[in-house]
Amino acid sequence: MDLKGFDHPGRPGGSGPRSVKVMIAGGFGTGKTTMVRSVSDIKPLTTEETLTQASADVDHLIGVADKTETTVSLDFGKISLNDSLMLYLFGTPGQERFWFLWNGLFKGALGAVVLVDTRRLASSFRAIEEMERQNVPFVVALNVFPDSKNYPVEEIRDALDIPENIPVVACDARDRASSRDVLVALIQHLKDRSAVAMESR
Amino acid sequence: MSAPRRPTDPSGLERYYVLTGGRSGPGGSASSLDVATLIVSLAAPVPGMQHEHEDILRRCRDPLSVAELGAHLGLPFNILAVLLTDLLEAGRVEARDPIPAHGAGRGPDLALLEEVLSGLERL
């Protein structure tokens, strides 16, 4: 049996295999799954999560007795960053009726990418609001569809009321390098935030 | 897309009920499991073990996330969490949570972010 990684048991941050999580958010049909697919090392998979809106009862069969339980599918992919560090990317459910679930989903994430379809700016309003409300660090990625008009980034920033310190980048979610660059922009943004936090201490 | 895929299938629910002995957890040590938590086997399967437990131990010889396990085994998160609790409590697997974004109000540490960046730049 392969014992790789067994020698150093420990919690996150120690040695051995580690993982980080990034969420891909945005309105319905903005290209979240497309982005996960284009940048993942593995064929994207789907995991089902049954989420409970009210408090969780332990003793009944799921989905039968309690109408507040909802099954959602999360599309996800992974990138091996090095021998011991995995990056998992999760696309959030896009429909409004699932937004109550987001609290749990973002726990433990490094940050998020909010995808915006410039033809339908309004579809991502709510996602941006949620990131701000939950204090999740994020960057905004304008997914440039073939028939999208070429809006100046600053015009979109104004229209979506995105603060100056949040990066807004254009991308093509179908393209691996372009999607990778969005993730790089997110991590760079997290670094900048850390630096600011250090200075203000 | 991200729409829910399957309508609720009663035979599936019966299967889950049998798998978990009617428990719908996650409780105890698995309540903190995240979809990106890595599961690593600490022991080999033993004869007489529940098939799904055996399957998990075999698949997690190399670390696998809870989400991947769920996808491979065709089990929703909360059912899988019940099975993983059994294995965690028996000391047969180790769970390694994703490195969190905020440690005590601070952002993730810079060394980690640098590591993520250099990994991405190699893509």
Automatic annotation (TrEMBL), chain A:
GTP-binding in keyword set: yes
UniProt xrefs under InterPro entries: Gliding_Motility_GTPase, Gpn, P-loop_NTPase
Alphabetical list of Gene3D superfamilies matching this protein: P-loop containing nucleotide triphosphate hydrolases
Classification via CDD domains: Ras_like_GTPase (cd00882)
SUPFAM superfamilies the UniProt entry points to: P-loop containing nucleoside triphosphate hydrolases (SSF52540)
Pfam families, alphabetized: ATP_bind_1 (PF03029)
A molecular function (GO) term: hydrolase activity
Keywords: GTP-binding, Hydrolase, Nucleotide-binding
Residue spans crossing the bilayer: none
Family according to the record: Belongs to the GPN-loop GTPase family.
Protein name: ATP/GTP-binding protein
Taxonomic lineage of the native organism: Bacteria, Bacillati, Actinomycetota, Actinomycetes, Kitasatosporales
From TrEMBL, chain B:
Location of the region described as Disordered in the Swiss-Prot/TrEMBL record: 1-29
InterPro entries: DUF742
Entry protein name: DUF742 domain-containing protein
